[in-house]
Please model this.
Amino acid sequence: MAKKKKAQRKASDVWHIYKVEGDRLVTTNKVCPKCGSGVFLAEHKDRWSCGRCGYTEFKNKPGS
Model:
């Protein structure tokens, strides 16, 4: 029987979380207050959410 081909993994998008300002490395996303440093909140249209613990912060709507 022929061997199955392994699916190629998508490259990690971790480099989108960080930004270089001068000689410092700054994070662009918020850090989860429950999980601590190293776990970032994902930015959605109307909220920030943690994929690890499920913590959610809703963004304020203008005019509300």
In short: The two ends are 63 Å apart (CA to CA). Residues 18 and 27 are 4 Å apart (CA to CA). The first strand starts at residue 18 and ends at 21.
